[in-house]
Structure formats: C-alpha cells, structure tokens
Write a structure and sequence with these properties.
19 helices, 474 residues
Amino acid sequence: MNENERHIGIWNHFLQIVEQIVEPQKFATWFRPVRPVSMVDSTLTVEVPSDFFREYLEATYLDVIKKTLKRVIGSDAKLVYLVRAVSGQPAMAVPAASGSAPVNREVSVNINPAGNPNPFVYPGLRKIQINPKLNPVYCFSNFIVGECNKMGYTAGSAISSAPGKTSFNPLFIFGGPGLGKTHLAQAIGIAIHEKFPELIVLYVNGHEFKTQYMDAVNVRNKLTDFLGFYKKIDVLIVDDIQDMQGPGTQNAFFNIFNHLHQSGKQLIFTSDRPPVDLQNFEERLLSRFKWGLSVELTHPEYNTRLQMLRALCRREGVSIGDDVLEYLASRIKTNFRELEGAFLSVMAYATAMHAENSVELAAKVTEKIVNSSVRELNISTVQSAVCDYFNITPEELVSKSRKRQILQARQISMYLCRSLISNCSLSTIGAQTGGKDHATVLHSCNAVSDLMATDRVFKKYVSDLEAKLVPSEA
C-alpha cells in the first residue's frame, strides 16, 4: 500500500470491525461521516463534522474506539480529531493545538531587575512574546449582523481597516449579557491582526487588569514594568471595563489610556452599561470614554435570531428543519447566548434520546428555558401597567406634568424599569420616558426608594405593581 494512503487503509479496516459491533443506523450516523486525514507513526488523524459530533462519539463509543484502534494499529495507537472548518472558522484539532490563534510578533520591552532598589541601574532589554488572547472563533465571519448590532459592526469594520486613525477611538461597546460585545471586540482585534500583523494586539478583561495592577504594586519595581508593558500595545481591547474598580487601578489605566491615545493607538472597551451609567469611576476617565464612539448592542430581532440558528447548523455540521429553527427563534428572544444554549440543548437531547429534531421536541426542551406564562418584560409593559394602575394615559406618564399623581406614577415607572428589567440603562429609561436625562431617572429612583421606607401607602403602590408585573410562581 502507498505510504500516502496508509491512513485510508487503516481507517477502512477500523470501520470493518466497528460495523460488526455497532447497530447499522448508529454506525451510519456516527462513523460514516468521519474522514481519515493522515497517519504519522501510531497517530491517526481523522476529520469530524463538528466539536459536538466529536464529544458525542467519544462519550458513547470511547471503549469501542480504543479497543479497535489497538487491534488495528497496536498498543501505541493514538487518535486525533480535526474539527471541520466552517464559514471562515479555522479548523480545530483535538487534542493537539491547532496553532490557528493569532500570535503577536516578538517585541523588546524594558525589564527592571526584580528587587533592584537602585534607580540608576539601566534596565535590560528583553524579547518577549505577548499573547493577544484572541479566540479565533470570534471572527467577523462568524458574527451575525442585524439591526441590533449593525452600528457596532460598521464601526468595527472601519477600525479594522485603519486602527487608531478613525474618529472611533476609543470605541465603547455596551449592552446586556449575551448580545455579542466580546465577539465584536475580538473580531475587530482578529481582523486588525490579519491586516496589520506588525501591530501588537491585546485582549484583557477589567478584572484581570485590576489583578495585574495589584500584583505589580506589591512587588518592587514591577509597577514600572506593568505600565511599560501596556504602553507597548498598539490595539488594546478591555472587556467588562465596569469591573476596573479602585482609584489606584483607574489612575494607572488613565496614564496608559493617555499614552496610547496620544500615540495614535486603538482603544476598544466593552461594558454592561453606557459610560454615563458607570459608577465609582473617576470623572476624567468617563470623559475620555466619551471621546470616540459609544455603540449599544440591543436584543436581536427575529430575523437575526433565525440567521444565527442557521449559522449554528452550518458550524455544527447538522441539518435541522426550518420549522424547528423558526420555533426556537420565536421563543428565545433575550440574547444570542441563550439562543445558542437552547439550540445545543435540542441537538443534545435528540442525539441522546435517538429522537428526531421536531417542533414538539424543541417545545419540550425550551419549556424549562422560557416560562410562557410570563410575558416579556420591557419598558413599554412596565409603563402600561403603571398607567392602568393609576388610571392615567401614556401621554400623561411621559409628559412634563408636575401633578402629584402623574409625577409619582412617572417616578415609580422609572424605578420599576431599573429594578425589574435586567441591564436597562438609565439613559434608555429616560429616553423612553419623555426624553428625560439619566440624572433625572437616577433622582426618581432614589426618591421612590426613600418614600418606600417612610410611606406605607406609597410602598403598597410599588408592591402591587411588582406583583402584577412579576407574578409569583406559586
């Protein structure tokens, strides 16, 4: 047999044995789609349609695979899976590293000798490799664009073509969980790395930055190294910047921000709220966050959710009917993360129970994810409930009227929006309450809290509305 075809012969022999052990239908489903790729020494590499496929294959047939491989290849037999690349996503080898993650070029940085108290000793130059910490899955090819994120995608595309040279610097991306903030931020970094490989790109989250700063403060001369390291970065991506708490941490970041921005470097931040709603942040930092462009990622609309589910089918190498996908898209409305979780749950349940993907199955699986008895809570539903309770019109609620009943209803409405709707910013509440600014909304929320503590009748108003909007499961 030709050495280049050895892996094919080995795999065919493997299949002949397994076919005698595994049921015909299951054999056709889980072994026929696998394709032999190469054979090096005793290691056989095969390609599978998706990572989910690989996980199920090993979970269900690991013992059969191990024994058959030893019989065909020998006691040193090893199997490596290569997960098929889909829609621009790099192939992923398991367990071997794929080597597809972006890698920065080596750079020289000043390293002060640890514990050296003499400020006149010149620090040495050391070549280091900065890991950009970018996940290749989070590329633009895998980013689903819709009305919910079009502005962010457009700005990100412009930045990736000219980092540090657009007016979108810094780019501040905000929104609730699971809406794609991390994906968009990393996609920009990956695109920049592909177009400008000479630039140093770094992704870090706010909590990690704070931890690094505290570690540097506790070691002599390390703070200088810490600041010097970050000032070498060309594209700095900080995820969940709201976690960057503490005056010392913010002071260090302020200096890094100024240096990078003045040097024409690109800054990208993500947060669960807009800059105006960030608490315990220095005003000078907040003002800099507003220098560039702030974009909000909102809940995905139906067509975008359906498009994402179809993309997941391609990525996982599975075929699911449009009726099932349309059902999932109509049921899971909150964010991309929950939508993907529902999709994988349906797929896993169908595989484990040997059931057919159907609307009935999707309904059974999503029943635990979405409570159909509770209507979707948003600013409009809260305002409607408040208007009904106080017998006023929606126009009166959002007006500038200072009548006591209308003013109290307006303030309670803003308070309930902030307390009951997850990741609903003060700015968003104000915009939908007659164009009030965030300071007015914050004042209203504080006023309601104070009155609830001293006025039992007023407290009952709020309690009644909360019970109406979020009924008890009992």
